[in-house]
Amino acid sequence: MRRTDIRRDDGTWTGPSLAVQSRRQPGLCLFSTERRLLLAQQSRPVLLAAVEEDHCGVGFWRTDAYRSVIPPLRADTGRALAGHLDRWAYRFAQYLFDSPGSPLHDGRWLLSRESPLLRWNYGRLPQSEYWTSMLIDGHPDGYIDWFVHSGSWEILPLRQMPDAGDGRVKAYRKQARDGLLPPVLLWWVSGLDCHLILDGHARLAAAIAESTAPPLLQLHRTSPSNAVVAGTEQAVHRYEAELARFAELRAIHGAAVPDGAAVAGPSLARRLRELHTAPQPTWAWPLPGGAAQWRRVARAVTANRKWDADGWPSD
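-> structure tokens emitted (315 positions)
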């Protein structure tokens, strides 16, 4: 894995870009068949999902088999790294690479501090209310509503969220009050149109209980290297063409016409930045055995549930 820091034009740190090689299939792997998804961690079913025929939403079932890709965080580590999200990101990046149950596979990734969740509280709700509203309810089963919440990038826990009285949550609540809370690690999965919590269920619960915004690190795929090269050439060509257009106008109308750099320059910078940071669709692998295998797995993990006509567990 090669790590490169990504920064904004003003020098603000965004997060590390991770170039991963020699990992053709991840340990935390998303499989697909027809309108169904299976998330498995080292062959253990973690999450099953079925997209409605009208694409208005997704039913899901969690198995409680997920194991965090991040080892338990010590309180002294939290104190040492408090206020240094970059150092947390480097540490988490190494954990992600070292873990056999990580979603990393060949390609380029960004571990970003700039999750849209941190700036989408348009209603200016109290932090506890806002973050609670972004959590997708349901255990072990639930529903992701694409009709009402399309594009809102909600948060789906990979295990049941602990309540405010949980011992871990109580410990993290004090860290939240003291400004020492380690970040919550999210993974953007385009096939579900939501984030999955890779680590930090108790930390997020603590932030909600204290009505404070949790520090976040968001993992998502970015454009592969060949697409970055091609996109860069295209962006530079557009920039040069725009400058040439302004030069022609100046030749006709004189120096009152600007040279175009103030218009074309920011556009070029934005395109180049997006090549390195914009989320790309999450990869999914064909499920061996197809829909029949998905149903076999679903029946095994939902042993005592009835099934509806669409092949999904129901009460």
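The first strand starts at residue 2 and ends at 7.
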